[in-house]
Specification:
There is one protein chain. Helices cover 85% and strands 0% of the residues. It has 216 residues and is mostly helical. The protein has one domain. It is built from 9 helices and no strands.
């Protein structure tokens, strides 16, 4: 765990030093939401929910894609000599989970300011937004590692991620719809468990398969 914490602190320190990356993503989110506001004002509940998760998907691709694509071959060789493959991928997963959780909350605040806030159960929607951000970050972090080994082809990450992320997006949208009314669906707990299971499956696959990519 010492190696995981050290690598996590390294990513966190680089993010604070290169603040233009985080500010650029926030500017991207704010400008996109502002354009949506100019185009449609304050949309209906189901449209609002769909737009929110669409923005979350694009934000995750832009924020997480740099996880491995920004790492040079020499730097990866250095990390290979001081840390294990599982420690390295776990530090990346934890950092991107934290980053997407923060960006999810920022997106919700900006949506509420510009497109209105039709959410009736704020605590539930906040939990869904954070859970969804964590799930998206896990999938695209692992895909970023795969794309980095394919001559740093960022397009490969988008191609692989589309069929993998669609079921998760649909589940998160269905779960988020429960926050727009006071009625609690019977299948709410089952959807949460299913999303949590998918997240754990991605983490397990990353821990098992990443060492083979690392050695290559």
């Amino acid at each position: 765990m010492k190696s995981v914490i050290a690598l996590f602190k390294k990513d966190l320190l680089l993010e604070f030093r290169q603040q233009y990356t985080l500010y650029g993503i926030i500017l991207y989110v704010a400008s996109t939401i502002f354009v949506l506001f100019l185009a449609m004002g304050q949309p209906e509940d189901h449209v609002w929910n769909g737009l929110f998760w669409m923005i979350q998907l694009f934000v995750c691709v832009n924020a997480v894609a740099k996880s491995f694509l920004q790492e040079s071959r020499g730097r990866l060789l250095y990390f290979y000599s001081i840390a294990g493959a599982r420690d390295f991928i776990l530090s990346k997963l934890i950092f991107n989970m934290l980053l997407m959780a923060v960006l999810s909350l920022i997106s919700w605040v900006l949506f509420g300011l510009l497109l209105g806030n039709p959410v009736q159960n704020g605590a539930r929607f906040m939990g869904v937004a954070v859970l969804g951000g964590l799930g998206l970050s896990l999938v695209f972090t692992f895909l970023s590692a795969i794309a980095a080994r394919a001559q740093q082809n960022a397009a490969l990450m988008a191609i692989l991620g589309f069929p993998l992320i669609i079921p998760q997006i649909l589940l998160m949208m269905k779960l988020a719809n429960t926050a727009f009314s006071q009625v609690i669906q019977d299948s709410l707990g089952m959807i949460v468990l299913l999303l949590a299971g998918l997240d754990l499956l991605v983490v397990a696959l990353a821990i098992i398969l990443f060492p083979f990519l690392w050695k290559d």
